[in-house]
Design goal:
single chain; 69 residues; mainly alpha
Length: 69
C-alpha cells in the first residue's frame, strides 16, 4: 500500500532539484578539470554536494516513522 503525504510536491521538488544539481555538478566539474579552471571545478563540487544533501534530506524525510501522539 502506498502512503499518501500532504507534502508530496516538496519531496518531488527536492528529488528533482537534487538530481539536477548532481548532473550540473558533474558537468561543471568535468569542464573545470578539463580546462584547468579552479572556479568551475569548485562550483561543480558545490553543486554535487548540494544535490547529495537534497537527496539525503528527501530520503530521511521519507523514512521517518509516523508521528507519536
Amino acid at each position: 500500500m502506498v502512503a499518501q503525504t500532504s507534502d508530496g510536491h516538496v519531496l518531488l521538488t527536492k528529488k528533482l532539484g537534487g538530481l539536477f544539481a548532481i548532473i550540473a555538478g558533474c558537468l561543471l566539474t568535468a569542464v573545470g578539470v578539463t580546462f584547468e579552471s579552479t572556479g568551475l571545478t569548485i562550483l561543480g563540487v558545490l553543486f554535487l554536494a548540494l544535490g547529495a544533501v537534497l537527496l539525503v534530506l528527501k530520503i530521511v524525510r521519507r523514512n521517518q516513522g509516523p508521528p507519536l501522539t
